[in-house]
Batch of 2 targets.
Target 1
Amino acid sequence: MASPSRTYMVATDVGGTCTDTIVFADGEPVRLGKSLSTPPNFADGVLDSIRDAARSMGMTLEDLLARTKLFVHGSTVVDNTVLTRDGARTGLITTAGFEDTLLVTRGAYGRWSGLSEDRIKHPVRTERAPALVDADRIVGVAERTDYKGAVLLPLEEAEAERAVRALLDKGVEAIAVAFLWSFYNPRNEQMVRDVARRLAPDVYCTLSSDLAPVPGEYERTSTTVINAYAGRITRAYLDSLSRLLVATGYDGPLMVMQGYGGLLPAAEAAERSIGMLECGPAAGVIGSRALGRLLDQPDVIATDMGGTTFKVSVIQNGEIEYAREPMVDRFHYAQPKIEVVSIGAGGGSIVSLEPGSGAPRVGPRSAGSRPGPVCYGLGGTEPTLTDVFMLIGYMDPGTFLGGSMRLDREGAKRAFDEKIARPLGLSTEEAAFGVYRVACAQITDLIHEITVERGLDPRDFTLHAFGGSCGMVAGIFGAELNVKRLVIPYTASVNCAFGLVSADIVHEYSTTRVLPAGTPAEDVNAIYAPMVARALKDLAAEGFAGDRVGLEWSVDLRYMRQVHEVQTPVRAATPLDTAGMERLVGDFEALYERKYGKGSAYREAGIEMTMFRLTARGLMERPRLEPAAPGGSDASAALTGRRPIFVEAAGGFRDADIYDFGRLAPGNVVRGPAVIHTPITTIVVQAGQRGTIDPYRNVIVDFD
C-alpha cells in the first residue's frame, strides 16, 4: 500500500491552561484544535489537541500525523521547571575565588530585581531569590584566562576530576561550568566537560562558553546554571514527545520554538533548554507580526490573554523589540529574547480581596487548567476571571470548546458570592462588574507602561488581541487607549501556534570584541567571516542553502564609558564598506534616541562596538493563505439570539445580539453590543463599535 502524501504542517503550543494546535496545507482552510493542558504529562495534552484538530477535518489523530510533513512545538516546560523549582540537582564549577558570584548576584540590585513595585517599596524586607544551586554544590578550581583570552593558569586534568567527583558525591544530576573570560578561550571549560563525560556520561553538562559567550560574569554564570537546571528535564520531555509522535504515526522532523523567535531541531533545543523560556509568548509575537504583514499593519501592539497571564509586546515598523535584561523568576540570563511584558491577569487568574483594604484583586495566583475556574466543574473552589466573564453574560455554558465541555454557571455564582460579592456588600452583578473593570484597568496600565512611558503613542498602532480570553476585554482597553483599530485574529486563542508556523529555523552566533566605531570595515568583516562560515555549514546540514538562507548582521554599540549597549541591525550591504560603517553608526544614534529620547545621542562622547552578532535563518516553507471574496454586510444569518451582557457604556446589563462565528461570512458586519462565539474563544463587541469579518476571517473592530 502506498504511503499517504505528506502535505500538512502541524504546530502545537502548550500553555498553562490550554494546549493549542493549528494545521496548515496549501489550498485548504486553516484548521484549529484545542484541549486542556495535562500537567505533569503535557505530551498527553499535545495529542488531545492534535486529535481535536483532526476531528474537525474528519480524520483520526493517526491519519493526520501520517500525512504531516513538519511538526513544530512550543512548550512551557522550562518555565515551569524554574518557577516550580522542580529541576535537576545541579552543581556549579567555577574559577577558584569566584564561588560566590551566583549567590551575590548583582549586588544590591539582586535584592529587588524582578519584584513588583509594591515589594520594592519595602527594601528592608527584600531578599535575593534563592539560587538554583546550593552553596555546598559550588566548587572552585585553579585556572585563569585573562581578558584577551590568554591562558594564565592551565586547568590540570586532576583538578577538573577532583571537582567533578566532589559534585558527583553530592548526587548532582547536572553540572554547569562557568569560568572567567572563557568566551575568549574555552579550553579550560572544555576540559571539565570531557572529564564529566568520562566519569558520568549520564550527567547533563553545559558550558558558559558554548551557551553565553558574552561579558558579564554573573549573567553568564546564571545563564549556564538555568540551562543545566532545566536541561535534563527538557531533554527527557522532548525525547518522550518524539517517541510518542512516532508511535502515533509521525516520522518527520520535530522543531522547537525559542524565546528569540526562531526554531531549532529538538536535539539542539534539548542542549540549549534556556532558549525555550517564554517561547510561547515569543511565538505569539511572531504570529502577530506575520498577520500585520498580511494586513499591511507594520505598527502593532500585540496582546495575549490566556489562562494564566496577560502579555503585551510592541512591533514598530515591522520590527520586534528584544529584552535588554531577560529574566526568569528574578534570575537574569544572557540570551536573546523577544520583549514581552506580563502581569498575572488571565482567564484563570484567581479573584480575591486585598488583606486590610478589602479591595478586589485579580491574580497573580492562577487556577491553571486543573482544577481551573469554578465553572469548569473540575474541583476549583476559588473564583477566577473566567467565572466573572460567565457572570456578566459573555460566556455561554453550552458553547465552550465548541460545546465539548459544559460550564457550571451556578457553581461559579455560589463561589463568587461567598468569597467576593457578600464580603464587599454588593450584589453578584455589581461585584462582577467591578472586578471586570479592575482587570481592564490593570491591562491598560501595563500597556501604558510599554508604550506611553517609552514615548510611544498608542493612537499610531493597531491592537492585536489574541489568547482565549482577550476578545472579551479588548474592546474596553482598546477604546481606552484610542488605538487605530482592533484585530481579533481568526487564530485568536491559538495564535501562539500560528506563530510557530510563521517562524524560521534560527541560529544565533556572537563574538565579543571592544573596538572603536571608526574601526576599518575590513577588520569588522574579518570578525564576521568565521561566524558566517559556521552558520552556512550548520544550515546546510539542516537542508538549507542558496535563497533559503538569510544572514542578518547586528552590532552592539554604546557611548564611551556607558554600561548598556544598543543592539543595532546592519542595514547596509555585507561585507561592509566605509559607507556601511557610517550608516551603522547613524542607525545606532537613531535607535538610541528612540529608546532614550530626542536629543540624547551625543557623538562627541565617542562610540564603541562591544559585540558582533549574526542571526542565520533557514527560511521555512510556508503555506499560502488564500483570501475569500467578501460578501454583503448583513450578518443576520449568523444571529442565534439575544441575551443580557455587561455593556460598559451603559454601566450595566443590556440586551445584545449573539452570533455564531461559523456562520459569519467575509464582509459581514456585527454592531455592538454583541457577542460572537467561536469554538475556541469569545469576542465581545461593545456598544459604539462594529466588527467586520475580513477575507481571512479575522474580526476587525472599528470605533464609531
Target 2
Amino acid sequence: MESVIMAGGEGSRLRPLTCDNPKPMARLCGRPALCYIIELLARHGVSKASLTLRYLPNAITDYFDEKAYAGVSLRFVEENEPLGTAGSVKNAAQDPAEDILVISGDALCDVDLTAAIARHKASGADATLIVTAVDDPREYGLVVSDKEGFVTGFVEKPGWEQARVNAANTGIYILSPFALSLIPEGQPFDFAKDLFPKMLEQGLKLAVFETKDYWCDIGDLDSYRSCQMDMLAGRVNVSLRESVPPAPGDYTVIEPVFLGEHVTIGKGAVIGPGAVLDDGTTVCAMAKVRNSVLLPGSYVGEYASISGSVLCEGASVKRGAQLFEGAVVGPKGVIGENAKVLEHVRIWPGKTAPKGARVAENIQYGSGPELFDDDGVSGEAGADLTPMLCARLGCAAGSLKKSKRVGIAFSKGLAAKALAHAVTAGILSTGAQAWSFGQTLESCAAFAAGFCGLPVTLYVSGGPRCGIKILGEGGLPPRRELERELEGLLKKEEFTRCGWDGYRDTADMAGMRLVYQQELYRTAPKGLVGMSAQVRSADPDAAQFLEDTLLRLGCDCAEGMMLNLSADGESLTINDESAGYLTWDKIVTLNCLLNFLQGKDAAIPYDAPRVIDGLAEKYGRQALRYVRCPTDHDDDEARQLAQSQWYLRDGMLAAVRLLHYCKTEKTNLSDLCGMIPDFATVVRDFEIDSPVGEVLSKLDGEGAREGVMLTRKDGSLLLRPVKSGRRIKVFAESVNAETARSLCDEVEEMLCGFREPQQ
C-alpha cells in the first residue's frame, strides 16, 4: 500500500524547540520523530512513502539524503503554497487507483496499521479513521461514531462544554481511490473541515478503527517531554538507539535514562530517573538532571539542578542555576549563575536569564495561564491577577486579527480600576484603540460592547477575588476561535507593537451609561405610571440605578413586587404577592412569551429552559439557541438576533419590559405566569475524576450542541462540562423543583458510578 507522511508541520506550540527545526524533526531519545514513523510503516509492510514538506524542508531532505530509510523508499514533495492537509496528500499521492495510507510525521505511535488496513477492507468503507481515547480533548479533533463503528459527525478542538466524546482523530487515515478523487487539485482542502464532512453529506461510509496502542501527538512541550519518558519506561513499542555508557567516573545514573554519544558527566552528578542526554551534552560536577530532555550540545554547570525541563541544542545552564517543571531553554539560550527559572517559563533562542534572577515570566516569548474558565480569568489580586498579567492580556486583545478597537470596563473598587488601567496600557501598546466604558455594571458593559459593535471587550471585576471576563461580538460569550487566538498570543507573546508615534488615545465612552439608561426608557415608551415595584441588590449602586430609572418612568418604588437584582445586573428574581417567587429562568421564559405574542422569535442561551421551545411552537415562532463557546457558525442566526434582545440576558431590561407589558395590557404577573406551563429548574455542579469525554460517552444520552441531553419521563437534563474540564454542570428541568432535584440526584449517582474505586 502506498503511504503519504504529512511532514510539513511548523509546530508553533513547540517553540522555542521548533524555531529552527520542523516539528517532525524534533528529536526523541536521540532521533527525529519522523524516523520512528518510517520504521512503523516498514514493520507493517509499507515499502514506499511520499513526504509532504513545507516548513524548513531542507532539514528533512538533508537528514534523509539517501532517499530511503529502514527499507522504505522516500519521495519528497515540497508545497509551494499551502494546500491544507487533504490537498497536500492529493498533491503527493503517486497512484490514485489504489488505497492510500496517510500518517502524520510528528507523532509517536505504535498503532497496529495491519489491523487498521484489515478493518478498512472488511468494512467496505470509503475512508477509515484511526481514533484513540484521550483524557483532554480540547486540542484534538473528535470523531463521533455509531455502535457499528461508522462516523456520524465531528467536533473540532472543542471547549469542555462540547466535548461529549473523547475519541481523538489521530491523523492516520486509509483512503479509497474514490475518497482521494473528491479532493480538488491544487487548492487548499482539509480532511477534518472539508473532505470528511463532504463525504458524510454524500452518504459515504467512514469507518472508525479505535486503537488502544500508544499514540502521542507531540503538539506541545509537555507532551514532547512526557512521550520520551514513556519511551524510557517501555510504554511504546519502538526501536530505541542503544544508550552509550559515558566514561567511568564518580557519578550516579538512576535508570531509566538515555545517554547519547560523547556525553560528559562530572563528579558527584546525579542523572535520572527519566533523563534524556542527547549527543554531546555536558553535565558538570554535583549537578542534578531528572525527568528532563537535554538536546545535542547542551550544557549544565556545576551544582545546577534541572527538573522536568527541556534544554534545546546548544543551551547553557550555568553554575548553581535551577530549572523547574515545564521550563524550556531555547537553542543557545543561557541561564545565568544561581538563576531560578520557574515552572513553564520559556527562554527564547539566544536569550539570557541574568545571574541570580528569579525568572517567573518568559523572556521574549512564552506560555501564559490557561485563560478560560466559565467566568474568564479570575484569582487573587496581586497574586494570581497581577498588573503584568493584565497588561499582557491587553496586548493579546489588541493583537487579535480582527481587533483594532477593544472595549474595557470595570466594576467598582480600586483593585478593579487599577487592573483595568493595566489592561488598557497593553491594548494601547499594540496601536489598537481602547474604548473605555469606565466603572459600570457588567450588564451595561455587555450592552455597550454590542451597541458599539466591538469584536472583543474585557470586563474587570474587583473584590476578594478579581476577574476578567472576555465578551465577544454583541457582548455575547466569545467563540472558541477567539479564545484560542487569545490563548495562542499569550502563550507565545507574539504581540503587535507600535512605535512611539503609533499610540492612540483612549476613547472615553463613559457616556454609554446614559445610552443604556435611554434603552431602559425606550423599553417602557408609555412610562410606568400606576405600577409599583421595589428594588434591592447586593450592589447598592445597581439597586439605586434601577430604582432611579423606574422613578423617572413614573413607577412607585415604595411598595409592590420586590425586584431582586443580581450584583452584576445580568439577572434578577421577583417576589410578587400574586405570582409568588419567580426565578430568572421564569423571567426569561415570560419575556420569550411576550416575543411570541408580538409575533417575534427569541434568541436564548443553549441552557435556557426547554419549555420555551414548546411555547415557540404553540405560537408559530422559533426559539433560537446560541452556545457559550461555539466551534462553528451554526448559531450565527441566534447570536445575531440576541444582539437586539438585551432583555433576555439583562435583569434591568427584563424587569422594565415585564412591568411595561403588565401596564399596557392591564394584566399582572400572575396572569402572565398562567400562560406558561408549570416548570422548575435546578442547576448543580459535580466534580469528576475521569476525562470529560469518557464520562459523557458512557451516558445514554443524545448529543447536544453543548454536552449531552438526557430525556426522562418526568423531565430533562443537560450535562455541560465547564471550561476547566474538571466539573460538569447539570441543568435539570421538570414540573416542580422537587422532581428536578431528584433528576440531579440521579445524575450524581451515575457520575459516582463512573469513578474509579479507591485503591
